[in-house]
Amino acid sequence: MESGKNRVTTKQQFEKLVELMEKHPETGRGKPQFGCSKNKNKELWEEFAVVLNSLGPPSRTAHEWGRVWIHYKANIKRKLANNRSNLLVTGGGPSQEVSLNPLEESVANLIKIKEQVAPSGQSFGVENIQPEMDVDEIMDNSISPSEIQIESLDRPTSSASQITRNRRKCKNVESERLELLKLQTQTQKELLAKIEQLEKTIYKNYEINKKLLEVKKQKLEIYKKQAKEAHELHTLKVEVQKLKIAKMRALQ
């Protein structure tokens, strides 16, 4: 048997384990087995162990591989529960959500973990996530979670300090929003004042232009009148000149 440091389950073994569980969903979901079904389930795990050990090291017994699967499911449940808890703490604001990798998504869909981690009740607590297994398996401590290390498994970390930071972050975000709203209101007031001033200036210019137009109209009327008088005067002079010429001819 390998030492503790060599008992890291490889990614290839986990992929094969998930593949086997997808082929045998009842076993993967951990439904309680009794009588013949229980014996058949143990035989299946013996077959699984042979396949998984061929991809090792590490090598484990059928029962140990069963507990590897149980702890893997529990890790995914914890991750989803912590994500939900962080979301509730932040009140829908920015939270430290840890995404599931594709393999974990496959497991979550297989055993419907997302439905188990409900948005109410005590299901948010990580301590309430119980592996589905027989009573004799629960009492068996032949393999501990610390021995079952998972390659590239992102474990969510939730602490009081993180929760405090999240709350502070939410307060900071709200404060920033309030400041932005104040700034926006002030900017709108200044813009409105400028628009009103511009309207006054435009109206004033309109009145000035209106008066200038009236003056120009008056000047035009004067020019017309002067032109008419000049024309009449010219006509009169022409008539007088004609009379003078006619009178001179008559005297001759």
Question: On the 0-100 scale, what is the average pLDDT?
Answer: 77
The number of helical segments is 8
- Report the major sheet: 2 strands, parallel
Q: If strands are numbered along the chain, what order do they take across the biggest sheet?
A: 1-2
Task: Tell me what the structure shows.
- Self-associates forming complexes of several hundred monomers.
- Keywords: Coiled coil, DNA-binding, Transcription, Transcription regulation.
- Pfam families: Myb_DNA-bind_5 (PF13873).
- With 252 residues, the protein is mostly helical.
- It is built from eight helices and two strands, in the order E-H-H-H-H-H-H-H-E-H.
- It has a domain of 155 residues.
- A two-stranded parallel ribbon has the order 1-2.
- The protein is rod-shaped and about 160 Å long.
- It starts with 7 loop residues before the first strand and ends with a helix.
